[in-house]
Amino acid sequence: MSGEEILGYASAIIVGLVIGLAGGGGSILTVPIFVYVFHIPTLLATTYSLFVVGATSLVGSINHIINKRVDLRVTAAFALPSFVSVYLSRRFLVPAIPDPLFQLDRFVLAKSNAILYFFATVMILAARAMIRSTRPEQGEAADGRPRYTTLSLDGLAVGLLTGTIGAGGGFLIVPMLVLLAGLPIHRAVATSVLIIAVNSFVGFIGDIHHTSLAWNFLLPFTGLSIIGIFIGTYLGRFVAPDRLKKGFGWFVLIVAFYMITKELSSIR
């Protein structure tokens, strides 16, 4: 095993660690790890990401469910439309994207490169949210009445994002659950983990019809990520997640600009 692969497997623990601490965020590292460390093709990397994020989040959500931190009514309102959106996007939308996506004279924008540019843009937005590190205390649901219609529409949008780039979208889900459902931050984090789990698995199911998977690689990586979420859940009792999220946000920002630079340098 090369040093690069050892670094990649070690990064799997960080992915789970961040999901356990913050209810999301770590999943946006899986695609860059698969593409740039393990040199996996972009579309396959998004499929692998969905499985890893889904399995890791599912394990983490079990503890939250047992301890009754998950709001199941809010989960249903947000997640059901999201499930439909993520499945349809993985089953039909992503395969239907033309390759190349755009061509003008010698300039060719391949489908895989376009997805990575989009992914890097999402990473920058996520990093900005983490660096700002402001937790919304109240919003439309400050009166304690969840806005189920708005939650459902937001669920559709997050499902489309998850299906397209293979990230769970926790950095978007947690603020929505606080602002639109009136959930305390700890319940929003717990509910987000469950939504991410099912969202990711639904997207993964949409892929298995046309994808061959290397389980001997995928399962060990997922196992390390699951170890990370146990560590993150434990540390969450003692460590203020905001400070860690801010540092992680800067790291995500650096990775995003690295991705953009890497892709631009490959243009001929």
Task: Provide the descriptors you would attach to this structure in a database record.
mainly alpha, membrane, TSUP/Inactive_protease-like, 2 strands, two-stranded antiparallel sheet, transmembrane, TM_pro_TauE-like, 10 helices, 268 residues
Please give a structural write-up.
The protein has 268 residues and is mainly α. The chain has one domain (3-265). 74% of the residues lie in helices and 2% in strands. The protein contains ten helices and two strands, in the order ααααββαααααα. It has helices at residues 3-22, 30-37, 42-66, 72-96, 111-132, 148-165, 170-181, 185-207, 215-235, 241-265, and strands spanning 102-104, 107-109. Strands 1-2 form a two-stranded antiparallel ribbon. Helix 7 (170-181) packs across helix 8 (185-207). The radius of gyration is 18 Å and the shape is globular. The two termini are 32 Å apart. The model has no long low-confidence stretch (mean pLDDT 81).
